[in-house]
Amino acid sequence: GAVVSQHPSRVICKSGTSVKIECRSLDFQATTMFWYRQFPKQSLMLMATSNEGSKATYEQGVEKDKFLINHASLTLSTLTVTSAHPEDSSFYICSARKAGTGVSPLHFGNGTRLTVT
Amino acid sequence: QQQVKQSPQSLIVQKGGIPIINCAYENTAFDYFPWYQQFPGKGPALLIAIRPDVSEKKEGRFTISFNKSAKQFSLHIMDSQPGDSATYFCAASSYGNTGKLIFGQGTTLQVKP
After folding, report:
1. Which of A48, A72, A78, A98 has the maximal Cβ count within 10 Å?
2. How far is A107 from chain B (nearest CA, A)?
3. CB contact under 8 A, B93 and A103
């Protein structure tokens, strides 16, 4: 149990376009989802906390107008990279925690490799 | 205060060896300490986690040792296998901080046959 599915796994887009990444909790409800970014051979950096039915909370230095997060249901959060540029190329990973379980295991998706040309 | 410092950056052991990865934190509000394993191109997978009320936890070949006074914790992998070759991340979070995980820098482990 506790499967998090992320789609797409890879995406290539042209500079200036927008890309949407979906994160779904398949067998549990998640009131909170987290979005991370990982550059090659580096750690996971938290971008934002996504709360169902409310605005996302962004970490310092993350542009909320560039990285749009929507958490419309208990099983789906989306990250839209708007007006993407080559420096946005990275591995984006979402994670989710079962609703009502406080500080309990975070389950991660398999990530989305974004390449902006 | 939000940092979690992890060492070493990389580690090479022979099959059957016991690699040890160390992490240190500053924020005393942290109350949940998981370890994740990540293979290239994949998301992290939870290995084992510990809370500060215990000093050691074992799950299979993986053991976490926790030293609350020193604010340090470590991962031991018993009887390591080539299939354990991956990047390992420690992390920490606190319930009062929305439960968001702060990750260490990662350790790339290579287990030689």
Report:
1. A48
2. 7
3. yes
